[in-house]
Design a protein that fits this description.
Structural class of chain B: mainly alpha
Shape of chain B: flat
Largest interface: A-B, 70 and 53 residues
Strand content of chain A: 15-25%
Strand order of the largest sheet of chain B: 1-2
Strand order of the largest sheet of chain A: 1-3-2-4-6-5-10-11-9-7-8
Strand content of chain B: under 5%
CATH architecture of one domain in chain B: Orthogonal Bundle
Largest sheet of chain B: 2 strands, antiparallel
CATH topology of chain A: Amidase signature (AS) enzymes
Shape of chain A: globular
Radius of gyration of chain B: 23 Å
Number of strands of chain B: 2
Distance between the termini of chain B: 37 Å
Oligomer: heterodimer
Radius of gyration of chain A: 20 Å
Largest sheet of chain A: 11 strands, mixed
Number of domains of chain A: 1
CATH class of one domain in chain B: Mainly Alpha
CATH class of chain A: Alpha Beta
């Protein structure tokens, strides 16, 4: 195995796959919150430092059946809570483009593994941008699938109603090929079921779509909506590179038009209320009884509180407490109920904008990758970095981040957002931009 | 909305109360830091107050499966990560 120059792996391994298949001979790095039987799966947390899952996640089974070899488990923000991979209990990952800068997060190790050539492909998970953010910061491609396209069985949950596992690769075609492998119904994750009940289609969308075929570089005749609210807030060098990318698309026969999504002004607040509320419930399981270190002495309340103090880092504690606060008596209506209203509003806004366009385009991240250590002190500033990615999770929609070029020598990602189960459209648009900026 | 329902700003006692509900011990410095940060974050969340009531037009249906016995984890595999077990059970701290 190569030396791990950028600290992308928490565990290096070699789980070989079938002799042939669409991923035969390809290596894949897997985010460390995706269960691998008998291979340590830490979620970037001290509380799971020695945890060895007794089963494989469905996506890991599918990788190996497709012929891929899993070469390592990648570093991540603790439980996915962060956008820089600096909240990992095992230290930060370096951005291969500029080792003084963060690789983004929370799937920073996965994106950096692909950017550094330590793996051909990678899997991340995206709760509020955690695949697209590091893909943008490391100059690679990342896809956040529609909620329900990919099984979450074996993904250690942070906020179940928002998260999906997604592929990361050097090219749009490779990311789409990996999506073809992992997408599909799974009886062990009821949210992937796609039944004919109530007149719905008989098949799960993945059964009738080849995502790789959609990466043909040709989006001629597409109408791309550009939500002004999600462009105005971006830093100037990011905006310039993004607009250059739109120019290149127009040269290839794509029409662009401005659209408005007034609800997104409340998306970051809604996201953090919902995500922290779900986290406060999901992470209640880490009490030092079934896994982790037992808290020493006292009754169960004292023991659990001691185990959780020792096992969790500051950002995880902060989010558990914020979520507990948002759900507690006297606050539930003001925070959680309003956040659910905002979520429904965001969905409506996207549905309306996508009714008159094929896809929407925004800068993936409003900023260039920060230097390590620059952004950890102010949690609210970090949350605001997610402004362009979290609305997509609230709306359950598919999105992709694809390199749009560079600014000041650093990568800028363009995000395309599509209609529900419209992965083919965002892949097609991204492949056109990829071809145009080459 | 960075105020508690009784009108007080978020203070160390509020943080300690929530930490107790969540079963997370905190050091005194953490309590002070979180109180300041929560004040700022909850202030930002206050903008949710402007969100109109919105009905979700849901297209979701419950999906059921037959309730059948099927293979699951063995007892040994389920206990394999537990710090302490006894006679095939997880062993936890005393209840009171």
């Amino acid at each position: 195995m190569s030396s791990d120059e950028f600290d992308v792996f928490l565990t290096e391994t070699e789980l070989s796959g079938a002799d042939d298949g669409p991923l035969a001979g390809r290596t894949v790095a897997v985010k460390d919150n995706i269960s691998t039987a008998g291979v340590t799966t830490t979620c970037g947390s001290a509380t799971l430092a020695d945890y060895e899952p007794p089963f494989d996640a469905t996506v890991v089974e599918r990788l190996r059946e497709a012929g891929a070899t899993v070469v390592g488990k990648t570093n991540m923000d603790e439980f996915g809570m962060g956008g820089t991979t600096e909240t990992s209990a095992f230290g930060p990952t370096k951005n291969p483009v500029d080792p003084d800068r963060v690789p983004g997060g929370s799937s920073g190790g996965s994106a950096a593994a692909v950017a550094a050539g330590a793996a051909d492909l990678a899997l991340g998970s995206d709760t509020g941008g955690s695949v697209r953010n590091p893909a943008a910061f490391c100059g690679v491609v990342g896809i956040k699938p529609t909620y329900g396209l990919v099984s979450r069985y074996g993904l250690i949950a942070y906020a179940n109603s928002l998260e999906q596992i997604g592929p990361i690769a050097d090219t749009v075609a490779d990311a789409a090929t990996l999506l073809d492998v992992i997408a599909g119904p799974d009886e062990r994750d009821a949210t992937t079921r796609y039944d004919a009940a109530d007149g719905g289609p008989d098949d799960h969308p993945a059964a009738t779509t080849s995502y790789a075929d959609a990466a043909d570089g040709d989006a001629e005749g597409f109408t791309v909506g550009v939500p002004t609210e999600l462009v105005e807030g971006a830093a100037e060098p990011v905006r310039e590179t993004f607009h250059d990318g739109l120019d290149a698309l127009r040269d290839r026969g794509v029409e662009t038009r401005e659209v408005s999504l007034p609800s997104v002004e409340h998306a970051v607040q809604a996201y953090y209320v919902i995500a922290t509320s779900e986290a406060s419930s999901n992470l209640a399981r880490f009490d030092g009884v079934r896994y982790g270190e037992s808290g020493d002495g006292g009754d169960w309340n004292e023991s659990f509180a001691a185990a959780r103090e020792a096992g969790f880092g500051p950002e995880v504690k902060r989010r558990i407490l914020l979520g507990t606060f948002a759900l507690s008596a006297g606050y539930h209506d003001a925070y959680y109920e309003k956040a659910q209203d905002a979520r429904a509003w965001v969905k409506q806004d996207f549905d309306e904008a996508l009714a008159e366009t094929d896809v929407l385009a925004t800068p993936t991240m409003p900023v260039l990758p920060p230097e390590r250590g620059e952004s950890l002190d102010d949690p609210l500033q970090l949350y605001l970095m997610d402004a362009n990615t979290v609305p997509v999770n609230l709306a359950n929609l598919p999105a992709i981040s694809v390199p749009a070029g560079t600014a000041d020598g650093l990568p800028v990602g363009c995000q395309f957002v599509g209609p529900s189960f419209g992965e083919a459209a965002v892949i097609r648009a991204a492949s056109a931009l990829e071809a145009a900026v080459e | 909305m960075s105020e508690t329902p009784d009108g007080d700003p978020v203070d160390a006692d509020d943080v300690r109360h929530v930490a107790e509900l969540a079963r997370v011990d905190l050091a005194d410095e953490e309590v002070a830091e979180f109180a300041d940060q929560f004040e700022e974050i909850l202030d930002y969340f206050a903008a949710l107050d402007e969100v109109p009531e919105t009905d979700e037009d849901t297209e979701l249906v419950n999906v059921m499966r037959a309730d059948e016995v099927r293979e699951g984890l063995s007892q040994a595999a389920a206990l394999s990560n537990a710090p302490d077990s006894e006679g095939g059970y997880f062993r936890g701290p005393r209840v009171s």
